[in-house]
Amino acid sequence: MAQFTRLEVAAAMKETGMIPLFFNQDIELSKNVLKACYDGGARLMEFTARGDFAHEVFGELTKYAIAELPGMIMGVGSVTDAGQASLFMSLGANFVVTPVLREDIAIACNRKKVLWSPGCGTLTEITRAEELGCEIVKLFPGDIYGPQFVKGVKGPQPWTSIMPTGGVSPTEENLKGWFDAGVTCVGMGSKLISKEIIANKDYTKLEQDVKAALAIVKMVRK
Q1: 15: exposed, middle or buried (C-beta count within 10 Å: 0-12, 13-18, 19+)?
Q2: Which residues pair with 73 in a beta bridge?
Q3: DSSP character for 99?
Q4: What is the dihedral of CA 138, 14, 177, 137, to 10 degrees?
Q5: Ranges assigned E (strand) in the chain
Q6: Per-residue pLDDT tens digits for 154-196
Q7: What is the pLDDT of residues 33-72, one digit of tens each?
Q8: Which of the chain's ends, N or C, has fewer CB atoms near its CB within 10 Å?
């Protein structure tokens, strides 16, 4: 069961402005990555469950976060149907992110008052997601649409909260472009948690990179 309400999760997304995205099948490595992100100031983690037995790793990570990382909000990404969403919610997922808009996932998450963020690519999809109770819409793939798309959406729908994923990098130029356009937060995967960091198990660098990215987010939002 979720440790945080969907309103608490939405508030944390807005406050921190950034969600690291990560997947690995090695539980101990994943714990170290999670702790490095936490020590760097991140308070949300989207575990992109794309591999076999991903739910087992997620369950262990969530237990670890509850026991050792107070205030860390664990969520799951790459969820494709309501059954998968329900499985991860039973393992403690506090938010569910999907690559597409699926109403069955919306119903499953709303039933348990868990925040869900569907991948949308048109104003019609965004509007439908909001009609289904979505607080923060995922713009995916972000690099295809870009900040100009966000600005276009926010014109007629200033109430819409958008989180781009894909095409987001921890540079001032990139992040300023997104936040100037009006995004609520950004999702950042391999540009933040790189293959090199994982290969070298350089958790100190990861902590520093997360801290630096969050500092940039804070700066460009002023």
Answers
A1: exposed
A2: 44
A3: S
A4: 20
A5: 18-22, 44-48, 73-77, 95-98, 115-120, 137-139, 162-164, 186-188
A6: 999 999 999 999 989 999 999 999 999 999 999 999 999 999 9
A7: 999 999 999 999 999 999 999 999 999 999 999 999 999 9
A8: C
